[in-house]
Amino acid sequence: MDITIQYTFLPHTDAEESLAFYRDTLGFEVRKDVGYEQMRWITVGPAGQPETSIVLTPPTPDPGTTADERRVVAEMMAKGTYASIVLSTTDVDGAFEQVAASGAEVAQEPIDQPYGVRDCAFRDPAGNMIRIQQPQ
User: Fold this and answer.
1) Tens-digit pLDDT profile for residues 107-130
2) pTM, whole model, 2 decimals?
3) Residue 56: Cβ within 10 Å count
4) What are the VOC domain coordinates in residue numbering (predicted)?
5) Which residues contact 9 (CB under 8 A, 6 or more apart)?
């Protein structure tokens, strides 16, 4: 079986703020930017890796989502517990400095982990946890 990861989804609360973070801070390419009524989906991905993308999506686009479900999602996003992604780099300290300089919320400065990586963590504008790791 030949399976790869094509898309993963992260919610956004402000499309422009999220776009700026992923495009300008992380350097991702914008692949698609689609709007429908009051909603907007933006597909971004690392340069040179067209087969892997992140879709920045409204947090509850399904019209069947209840008010209680929307409230729970909003609360979890505010705490940073709703969605996350782990990125990889060859220079986690350099990546940390660049992302921190952008004003992104730092969740963890670079540290060596006992499971063989050096990593750091940030929250994107919607509260999603973004971990950046460097294998050791």
Assistant:
1) 999 999 999 999 999 999 999 999
2) 0.91
3) 24
4) 4-135
5) 54, 55, 56, 57, 83
